[in-house]
Amino acid sequence: MTSSTMTGRWKFLIIITASVLLVYGQTLKFGFVNYDDDELIYKNEKFLSDWRNVGTAFTAHAFIGAGGESVYYRPLHVVTLIIDYHIWQLDPFGYHLSSVVLHTMTVILVFLLFEIIFGNSVLALFGSLIFALHPVQTESVGWIAGRNDILLGFFITLMTISHVQSLRNTKRIKLYRILTSISFTFAILTKESAVFFLLLLPIYELCFHNKTLRETISKKNILRFLPMMAILALYFIIRLNIFSAFIGAEQMYGKGKPFLDRLANIPGIVAEHLQLLIAPLSLSVAHQLSDIIWLKQPWYFVSFIVLLLFTITLWRSWRKHPVLFFGLAWLAVGLLPALNLFPMPKPILEHRLYVPMTGVALAISFGIDRFSNIIQTVKFREVLFSVLTITLAILSYLRLPVWENGVTLFTDAVKKAPTDLHSNYSLARAQYDIGNYSECKQILNYYLTLAPTDPRGYRFLREVYYVSGRRKEVAEICKKMIELQPYNPLRYLETGVIYEELGQPDTAAIYYRQGIGTDSSVAQLHFRLGIVSERLGQPSIAAKSYKRAIVLNVQDADAYFYLAKIYASVNDLRSAIQVLESGLSIKTPSIDYLTLLLDLYDKSGDETKAVELKRRLNF
């Protein structure tokens, strides 16, 4: 490579870096959003702060630190968050900086790949800028938790470049094959959809090495991919060990639409994704299937035509235009994970288009170059590319502020999909997190008109009223929740506790008894009934309730202490001491109960135990 070539390449790399920073630099001022950022980062501090969890990340699902269930195995993504935490703690600036740097590095790799394919640095520059600045990329770059798609793009592009170089450079074929395998390994440890992108390697050979389809799928050719297949087999064994299933999506999301219904949605889903790529004017974090026009007539029929035209274009370009074919094939492979063949909660998410966008940028670059050659005007090509990249940059720059925080993100989502439950609930949560309780209550009340039987909505609204100090409204919500779940004893427990706080122990007792009638095995119902019975001057009922609570939960130390107090009040010293000692073996009580026990020892004449207790507790 000549010095002039190197100088020219550095200029291109500087242009790429400057363009990315110009558009995405604003994200450095953004915060976290309550959309996976919470569970992965700012509510996951204990997990991220422990370096030992780098190992844990490779043996558990991605949300292990936050608890709950997940079918996502993404250890490298989690590791980058652990590293970020140890550098930046919970300063979102550092996390956004990492995402912008990773995006820049990925764009540079895309430039290098396009340079190989086109043999033209200018075309490669414009193609990589289309990839970098397309508005659909704003979700992956502006959203910290969406970084896994950037990492996936980096490793998939590196894998493809390494494979191409192994075909071009026979002297270093082993080195490039090893790098191909390593890149693929890192890719599948970043995101599950990397499995599909392995298809890009034989497709590249089919396009640019004049191989027939039979040669491409021949035994001899397939054996060259044996290392990747071994890595893939090991990967599925790991998933089987963690999730007790190779994929696991059926277990978590399989209760939705039947497979045939999901199959019927494929044309509409493909058409929607193509629309987001061609006309990215309705971007949102929420894309409800029920709102997609391509799944409604007459557009559903049109979506079949769109899918057919895409397939025909792909087929016809195979031999005539290998660059176009490779770009469209890259897009097609990238769309496979999004077709909902394996159940997923949200089939359409913009960040899933981050890697497929490479194929789109390649196809667009080829199309503009081809058209310019037909009209024999190179300057037209450069003007058209410039106008396109500037337009994309402006659209992305204007879209990015949506990702500034949870309120801006979900306000935009609700505006575009007013009936989306997740967006409304998340907007309420974002308002709650910043202490805007009045807005939060309004949103939750609207949410409950959309989902009037959702206990989660009522629990959240109850929490908002509680922190606002409005206990009467909390009580009303608790009663509504009992109507929704009359056989859930916890609903009665929650209602009783609120009436205790309202100073109405008699009403609380009614709800505790109703809860016991529903399920008499809940120890806390008996314990709380004991407390309110004491307040109502019913010590015998209180004692009976505490005894039942102890039978149901022998580790409930407080029940022992309360029961001992009743025994002491009726001068049953022996029983009081016995119960207090049992409670003391579980946990150390408050100073009042220790004083009571010492007083009981004095009254019973047991000075030895009194001295021992004082010594033991340094009391």
Supply database-style keywords.
0% strand, mainly alpha, 619 residues, 35 helices
How many H/I helical runs?
35
Largest sheet: none
Task: Estimate percent helicity.
Answer: over 70%
Distance between the termini: 82 Å
Low-confidence stretches: none
Shape annotation = elongated
Mean pLDDT: 91
Please identify the structural class as seen in this structure.
mainly alpha
- What's the total count of β strands? 0
- Spatial extent as radius of gyration: 32 Å
Share of β-strand residues: under 5%
Quick synopsis:
This protein has 619 residues and is mostly helical. It has helices spanning 3-24, 37-42, 45-48, 53-56, 75-88, 92-118, 121-133, 138-142, 147-168, 173-188, 194-197, 200-208, 213-216, 219-223, 226-243, 249-253, 259-264, 266-278, 299-320, 322-335, 356-374, 378-399, 406-416, 421-433, 437-450, 455-467, 471-484, 489-501, 505-518, 523-535, 539-552, 557-569, 573-584, 591-604, 607-617. It has 35 helices and no strands.
Mind explaining what this structure looks like?
The chain is mainly alpha-helical and about 625 residues long. About 70% of the residues lie in helices and about 0% in strands. It has helices spanning about 5-25, 35-40, 45-50, 55, 75-90, 90-120, 120-135, 140, 145-170, 175-190, 195, 200-210, 215, 220-225, 225-245, 250-255, 260-265, 265-280, 300-320, 320-335, 355-375, 380-400, 405-415, 420-435, 435-450, 455-465, 470-485, 490-500, 505-520, 525-535, 540-550, 555-570, 575-585, 590-605, 605-615. The longest helix is centred in the N-terminal third of the chain and has 27 residues, at about 90-120. The chain starts with a helix and ends with a helix.
